[in-house]
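Teaching assistant's notes for section 4

Start the section by putting this record on the projector. Ask students to predict, before seeing the second block, whether Glycerol-3-phosphate dehydrogenase will look compact or extended. Collect guesses on the board.
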Amino acid sequence: MSAEHPHYDVVVVGGGINGTGIAMDAAGRGLKVLLCEMNDLASATSSNSSKLIHGGLRYLEHYEFRLVQKALAERESLLRNSPHIMHPMRFRLPHRSHLRPAWMIRTGLFLYDHLAKREMLPGSRSIRFNDSGPLKPEMTRGFEYSDGWVDDARLVVLAATKAKQAGATIMTRTKCVNAKRGANEWQITLQDTLTNNEQTVTAKAIVNASGPWVSSLFGEALAMKAPKMIRMVKGSHIVVPRLNQEDEAYILQNEDARIVFVIPYEDNFSLVGTTDVEYEGDPSKAKISPEETNYLLDIVNDHFKRQLQPSDVIWSYSGVRPLMDDEEENAQKASRDYAFEVNDEKGQAPLISVFGGKITTYRKLAEAATDRLCNYFKGAGKRWTKTAILPGGDFDNQSNLEASLKQEYPWLPDALVRRYVRTYGTLSRKILNNCTSIEDLGQHFLGTLYEREVNYLVQDEWAITSEDILWRRTKQGLYAKAGEVEALDAYLENQ
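Reveal the predicted structure now:
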């Protein structure tokens, strides 16, 4: 161990879902772990998904049976381990016979129901739509099946929290700018992106889990040629006023053979997405284009009675998916599976790089990556994450926890109870500790966001900016009015 520099078993580069998942698993097996993220946790791809824990029904059309089976098997494990930020959801698929025949859909849904064991989620069925529903009258028949919803950014934060509880060091706003390989260890230079201050640490192994930056990190920090290139595909979403009042989501078929989801979102809204557009450039600067907005609105307007205009879009976001470059011409056919590249030539300190992946299989990916890591660390612990409850998830169901919190804090508004339960679960009590009235929550900023929660997010969840708080830790940015964000900014500057 160096007398000058802190030493770790593993340095994980990247604070998205794959990086935090690996840090959590490795720390839980007894390894000394440092995770560095150059921005905020989940600041790129991992907070810009369709918010689904799903097998990927449409992947069956591309014969990705192994990926679908793997994802389906993970759904119920994840739903059990995180009942606050995940919940089952039913999806309705209007039938349009000129796009896909009914037998094809039935076959796909049969496979979807049976490729993996299913205990929590009900199976698929045929349904009829009536005139009182949100769809256009010509939509009379359809299908219904099960998948899951997830608050993607909170999943990342909770995985990082679990990693920290297991002993990992989590450093946000910290960029890996250089890594030199010695005979037995890496010497790694980390730069604070807020102050530009640098520090050096050493590690036996590095995991490159930097998502869209996984290939570029080789040239920028590792002085090596990337073993694989990734294919960057931009997926954009829009948030509009709620299109249906039921709890079900809709999966809409389109003439280009793609599908678009319409998902109930934050009580008052619908989340619509996604697109598949080839992307070049800085992944952090991805933005939705007018063409993408119109594409999503056109599909919605083809199906729903309520007709939307671009002026109805309340918020939009875009994320860049780092897909394995399998040379498919069509972006939607590119695989969503993952792969590892292990570089440990001639017994040198190892480098493991993660290519591809999707949120639903993050735990399996992390487990497989940590298995590889453990080959270099005798005495490392065994697999443990399949039944690991994420922080705040130690309760049976949301309704019971809501009832319990209402009894303990009868002055707490119902809307705040609901949001706390689905955001923090039992960690809500940490925010509410010793509060006996709404005034005890401190300054009100906007929506249902109060000073107590802001302080908790800064102290316990690595939040620094209003964007971290309003769009990743909570979704209260949807309710922000003129001047309210500035008040939060001013408060944070004084912390």
